[in-house]
Specification:
CATH class: Alpha Beta
Radius of gyration: 14 Å
Largest sheet: 5 strands, parallel
Mean pLDDT: 93
CATH topology: Rossmann fold
Number of domains: 1
Structural class: alpha/beta
Low-confidence stretches: none
Length: 147
């Protein structure tokens, strides 16, 4: 494992101020710093991207093929609606770990269904920013074990 893409979807640019009772006070810049520092400590290159636009997220997933060894994806609300993101993940044949800051399974019923989960190697939800680090570790462990 050499390069990991950290990809964040819609409204995550507002972290720290958007519904802090649900998502906490950690900003997206804080999360990107956490991922970059964790990557450096583990000899990984980390690319951080965020977009509020579905097509841009798809373009980033496509661009990761041949450039990245895995993706940590917080697709935000697109998690529950985007067949296009699901198809993009299937197309690039890279391991993807789905991450959510909140526990989507303890929230509104519509948030409990993920279009991403069937094509991801795993899902981490409810651990706040720590979820990103756990996802990175999972990708590294998978690469080391060959799974």
């Amino acid at each position: 494992m050499h390069t990991i893409l950290i990809l964040n979807g819609p409204n995550l640019n507002l972290l720290g101020t958007r519904q802090p009772d649900i998502y906490g006070r950690t900003t997206l810049a804080d999360i990107e710093r956490l991922c970059t520092e964790h990557g450096a400590a583990n000899k990984l290159s980390v690319i951080c991207k965020q977009s509020n636009h579905e097509g841009t997220l798809i373009d980033e997933i496509h661009a990761a093929r041949g450039r990245c060894d895995g993706i940590v994806l917080n697709a935000g609300a697109y998690t529950h609606t985007s067949i296009a993101l699901m198809d993009a993940i299937s197309s690039v044949e890279l391991p993807v770990v789905e991450v959510h800051l909140s526990n989507i399974h303890a929230r509104e019923a519509f948030r409990r269904r993920s279009r991403i989960a069937p094509v991801a190697v795993g899902q981490i939800a409810g651990f706040g920013p720590l979820g990103y680090r756990l996802a990175m570790d999972a990708l590294v462990d998978m690469a080391r074990s060959g799974t």
